[in-house]
Amino acid sequence: MNVRRRSSAAALAAIAVIGAATAPAVAADPSPSAPASSPSTPSGLYGTTDPRYDGVWRQSLALLAQDTAGVVPSSKAVKWLTDQQCANGAFAPFRADPAAACDAKTPVDSNSTAAAVQALWAVGGHGDVVEKALGWLKSVQNEDGGWGYTPGTPSDANSTSVVIGALTATETDPGKVVKDGKSPYDALLSFALPCAKDKGAGAFAFQPDKDGKLLPNADATAAGVLGALGKGLVAEAADPSGSGARSDAACADADKPGREQAAANGAAYLADALAEDGHLVSALGGSADQPDYGNTADAVVALAAQGGADRAAEPLAWLKKNAATWASQSGPAAYAQLVLAAHATGTDPRDFGGTDLVERLNATGPAPQGTAVKDTATASDEDRKKDEDSPFGVWWFVGVCLVFGIGIGFLLSNRTKKQQP
């Protein structure tokens, strides 16, 4: 939810050095169903590949995907993530020795921190960890209102968007998180290309190039659409008839497009890029014209969140047909991206083109504790209302499950706050 993602470990190492990406990529995992605990893989971590560049990112995506599928994650997996936090609230991609204090050389970043916030808020019970992480994010906000990958680096669309997702997920209004009078939305809209552009009309750029020009970037656009909508890594399909949702494929100019207009323009760019083949192509060197499965999954989430599930139907169908092999070679973050794409479109992740994505994801790490979601599809209207209005419906059932490893205090206290007049 995010440059967020995927490539070789070598590419990630280069990205980390120059600070030009917003989050670690998914390195190939040739044996994703192998036991998560091995001499080179920390206990509790999803996946078996080197976690130096994407450990917290892939763990956070895995927990978020499990949560959307009604899975109560392993307490060991959640503890692995909370243990990665530094005393100042920040997260690095991976800390080999969590017992050792973080110092100036610890490579903390906004993307790992924002992803961890969203995951830990979703599973509940870690309000102190979330609060410290949000405090750190606010402390490193740039003067333009946005965030770069690491503190002190220029803002970019991906990093700013994933932090917006962390803020909105925790019921914090990004528009009120300001630095020098600028909000994250101000920074994000500065990366939006106008419709008058001959190439890349309506897209988001990652950030200006060395000459100050904005170049279209599909990855940044998928992130930017969600950020402009105030959405996080987990997003629901928009009601196409609702306010702000647009399912047409045209970019519409405005003197100063607002957030909804910028999101619609970005979605139009993505729809156009996907129209020919049903997938996006890789921008990595040596991979030209190769399908970019991860970016396509992110585009599905963005299109569904902006214009409704139908708008993402073609790339979703392509993923169902082609993405299982990619995910099996790429590991937990890839499975998680597909689960999140399924969630955004109302698709069953347990039958995604014949693949049970949830089962495959669960197999890449410690066994989950169980299932937490009550099936309300067959419940009576009265029962459903009780579940929605009372802390003793689904929430109580979830709490009983979570109390044995994740904690219930934060979850129930938040529920109580929501119920107060």
Automatic annotation (TrEMBL):
Residues 26-45 have a biased composition (Low complexity). The keyword ATP-binding does not apply. The keyword Ubl conjugation does not apply. Residues 26-50, 238-257, 362-388 are annotated as: Disordered. The chain crosses the membrane at residues 394-412. Keywords: Membrane, Signal, Transmembrane, Transmembrane helix. Residues 1-27 form the signal peptide. InterPro entries: Terpenoid_cyclase/PrenylTrfase (IPR008930). This is Prenyltransferase/squalene oxidase repeat-containing protein. It comes from Streptomyces ardesiacus.
